[in-house]
Design goal:
The complex is a heterodimer. Chain A is built from 23 helices and no strands. In chain A, helix 18 runs antiparallel to helix 19. Chain A is globular, with a radius of gyration of 22 Å. In chain B, helix 1 packs antiparallel against helix 2. Classes of the chains: A mainly alpha, B mainly alpha. Chains A and B meet through helix 1, helix 2, helix 3, helix 4 and helix 7 of A and helix 1, helix 2, helix 3, helix 4 and helix 5 of B.
């Protein structure tokens, strides 16, 4: 009862455009303040405790890796390499988009970083060669979904910290689903470009495959350092993130593509993104505590158990609910709110927490593509000059391949679980 | 003649606070990076693992989070849901901004009031490796929420003065998305200077019903 009131209050606050962090915080503060048996300091203590976590330190560092590698022009080097490799295929730029995103996703952990990097290079390129503009926009948006699924992944760290799962396991659990998504997208591109006359033309940047490979090789070493380091037990994900920042920094200095000014800007930008995410983490940690104290997950589990015994139906319900939540909430915020509720319930249905994590992340990042709150739409619109409705229309058909990938990941747990288990994580 | 200058002055003073917050947040971020790198180097190069690095990084992270949250508040960049608000008229948006800002200030003050005694009391405890008083750990939240209340009040005053919500002057969404162009990071988000304000006073509506300059802050930047 109290919980329902809290949730309703929270929804009202979100609707009147109170920032998400404060929309979570205010009802919890009222709860703490009005309960007789809780010391008031608990609110502050829970919020700081939510941030006082070693794995969480990887978030700002991986955000910095993404911004830094884009500013240092490392993303461009990857694009050039992929173009030289795939440029000869019919409809090549479609595959180049998916391939470039796949490459860059090994270094970036957020969809908006991918969308900005891809959109600014590939949409103009496709436009110039006469591809359908909507197709170009939709493909860039859909391909940017690989960023937060492929390790390193910011949502994966947030999920792992909230759910108490190993960050490394969740990182590796994302590899196969990301490849599945890339494959489904490629098939979709294959059928789409058949109708487009211009798409038959090849790109003549094939000449320097070797030169492009030489240019991109040091960049491609970054994910090897990150994932190899984690897998080999050389360092923790947090240390891996710090090493990646230092490595990318060194590359940028070698290529002379970074100035002091741009470094400071990258740091401020990292702090900005970290600040807006971490305030939600702090507030959500208090909310999670209130939720547990009021036994919210247990009640939800009882309701769901009355409804169904089948874990598959449960997963379908979870998918439907998360897709709806994802349209209005940003993935990090949505994860922080829903994981404390869903995780204990899913455990009762016998669903592996790592599998649940991958399903939830994929669901919520698809929400980045759907209005009203679709950050990727706004990013793409800004870097390409297309209007938001244009981007939305372009994205629409790509919900089909994304949905197919989501179904595969949801109903074939081994896609997520096989790799981390094979690696003994 | 006197009033606008006063307003400008207030705006500038808050900018100064915001810039200081930025600088300190960046310092914290770099110290996290430095201590983590030092931890790896010490372990593998010098074979002498550091005792303090992890604790320092966590401490710096807490301060980074709250200092950054404060300057993001000054930029009006905190993530919010604008499903309902985007449908309101400009005046309605301004009212709504005042209401939601008021609630944010209320929340900040509640945290301050609730937390003050707690922060004071835990001061006797020290962190194990570095011996930093727990008041400094939990104090980060108090300082952060205090600064956020300050900025939020400033934003509210600016909204009242302008008769227009700061997020209605499109720059806030980009900061929330973390997509504001890095070269453009210094542009004031919340405090649009008067000249700018006059220029962007009546944005022509785009086809989707949003003001056309929604695209502007991200659009003129480019890459990220």
């Amino acid at each position: 009862m109290i919980l329902a009131l809290l949730v309703v209050l929270m929804l009202i606050l979100l609707a009147i455009r109170v920032p998400v962090a404060f929309g979570l915080l205010l009802p919890c503060l009222l709860y703490v303040g009005l309960s007789d048996d809780i010391s008031l300091g608990v609110a502050l203590q829970r919020m700081v405790a939510g941030l006082n976590s070693f794995p969480l330190l990887a978030v700002p560092l991986f955000i910095m890796t993404g911004y830094l590698s884009n500013t240092a022009g490392l993303a461009d080097r990857l694009f050039r390499f992929v173009t030289s490799l795939l440029g000869g295929l019919p409809g090549s730029l479609g595959y180049v988009t998916v391939g470039s995103s796949l490459m860059f996703s090994w270094m970036s952990g957020a969809a908006i970083a991918d969308a900005a990097a891809l959109g600014s290079v590939l949409v103009p390129a496709m436009r110039k060669r006469g591809y359908d503009e909507r197709f170009a926009l939709g493909l860039c948006a859909a391909a940017s979904m690989l960023g937060p699924i492929m390790p390193p992944s910011i949502p994966a760290i947030i999920y792992a910290v909230t759910a108490g799962v190993s960050v490394g396991a969740l990182f590796f659990a994302g590899v196969l689903p990301a490849l599945v998504l890339a494959a489904v997208l490629c098939v979709f591109v294959f059928f789409q470009v058949r109708g487009q006359a211009a798409a038959g033309a090849t790109v003549d940047e094939r000449r320097g495959v070797l030169a492009a490979a030489r240019g991109a090789a040091p960049v491609m070493l970054t994910p090897v350092i990150i994932l190899g380091g984690i897998l080999g037990g050389v360092f923790t994900p947090t240390e891996a993130a710090a090493t990646a920042v230092v490595y990318v920094l060194a590359l940028g200095l070698c290529y002379r593509s970074l100035s002091w000014r741009s470094l400071y800007d990258v740091a401020v930008q990292t702090a900005r993104t970290t600040g807006s995410i971490m305030l939600i983490v702090a507030a959500a940690s208090l909310f999670g505590w209130v939720l547990a104290r009021e036994q919210g997950p247990r009640m939800l589990a009882e309701v769901l158990r009355d409804l169904t015994d089948d874990p598959w139906i449960f997963l379908v319900l979870v998918n439907a609910a998360l897709l709806v939540i994802g349209t209005v909430l940003e993935p990090t915020a949505a994860l922080l709110i829903t994981v404390p509720v869903l995780l204990p319930v899913a455990a009762q249905f016998g669903i592996h927490p790592v599998h649940l994590g991958v399903v939830m992340i994929l669901n919520l990042v698809i929400g980045l593509l759907t209005p009203p709150v679709g950050l990727v739409l706004y990013v793409l619109s800004s870097v390409t000059g297309a209007t938001v409705p244009q981007v939305v229309r372009g994205v629409f058909p790509f919900l089909i391949p994304l949905g197919i990938a989501l179904l595969i990941v949801t109903f074939v747990p081994s896609v997520s679980l096989w790799l981390p288990q094979a690696l003994g994580m | 003649m006197n009033r606008p200058r006063k307003n400008q002055k207030r705006g500038r003073r808050e900018m100064w606070i915001r810039d200081a917050e930025r600088l300190m947040a960046v310092a914290m971020l770099l110290s996290i990076l430095g201590s983590m790198a030092a931890q790896v180097v010490a372990r593998y190069v010098f074979h002498a693992p550091l005792a303090w690095s992890e604790e320092w990084a966590r401490f710096a992270m807490i301060w980074l989070a709250f200092l950054a949250a404060a300057f993001v508040m000054a930029e009006q960049g905190h993530i919010a849901v604008d499903v309902v608000s985007s449908r309101l008229s400009r005046g309605g948006k301004a009212w709504l901004a005042c209401l939601s800002n008021g609630l944010v200030v209320l929340a900040c003050l509640l945290v301050l009031a609730c937390g003050a005694r707690f922060v004071w009391r835990v001061g006797v405890v020290e962190s194990p490796a570095l011996g930093i008083s727990m008041s400094a750990w939990y104090g980060a939240a108090s300082v952060g929420f205090g600064l956020m209340a300050l900025h939020c009040l400033g934003n509210t005053l600016a909204t009242i003065r302008r008769g227009r919500a700061a997020w209605d002057i499109p720059a806030a969404a980009c900061a929330a998305a973390g997509t504001q162009d890095t070269a453009d990071a210094d542009r004031p988000c919340a405090y649009v200077p008067p000249a700018d304000e006059a220029r962007g006073a009546n944005p022509p509506a785009a086809s989707d019903g949003r003001p056309a300059d929604v695209e502007r802050p991200m659009g003129d930047g480019g890459r990220l």
